[in-house]
Amino acid sequence: MNKMNIILIGIQGSGKGTQAKLLSEKYGWEHITTGDLFRRNIETATELGLKAKIFIDKGELVPDKYVFLIVKDALEKAVDGFILDGFPRNMEQVHFLQENFDIQQVVLLELSDDKAVERLMARRNCVKCKRDYNILFKKPQRDGICDICGGELVIRDDDTEKAIRKRIEKFHNETNQVIGYYIEKGLLSTVNAGQPVESIHNEIISRLGVE
Ligand code: AMP
After folding, report:
1. Which CATH architecture is the domain 4-29+78-208 placed in?
2. pTM for this model (two decimals)
């Protein structure tokens, strides 16, 4: 049994979701993404979801008191370990985590801004079935056409270079201090996210010291 509590940090396009899924399948650690927890609460119109929506719609961080409620509940249920994604995003959240949970490792998936922009601009979505493609590594069989339903493949409105660069800047502003803190604590390992999926996965598990 390899119970571990880890934090995965990575810019959009770094393949964080893919890596979290691989780890979760292999070791049974719960993949907990605060953004998804909020989206689920908004869909089911919970009181917390409705409160959080006001901030999310404005592109602001949700106030910590709501974040803590949602995160604490999810982390306490993850008895076999967790992979935390999207949290902590500020120093208050770092301290909350430190006071309530044991974190064994923090993994930073490192990718340059330009590489992230290149990958994100290569994303395509089917207008009909919403399936996603990437013209760099998950190409459709026929250009611009969905393999499954034949629908047209388009670029999402928020995948313009300007919008992507803005999201990246926000990521750096939010995470710089958090990354600095975990470096100082000696908990952070950096993995090059420019490699193939399998190599990144192997490097992460070697850093974590699990088999
Ligand atoms: P994400 O999908 O991670 O970009 O999260 C979507 C939105 O949820 C963010 O823009 C924030 O408004 C909110 N959110 C997610 N995680 C956090 C967090 N750790 N602290 C505050 N707000 C968060």
Report:
1. 3-Layer(aba) Sandwich (3.40)
2. 0.90
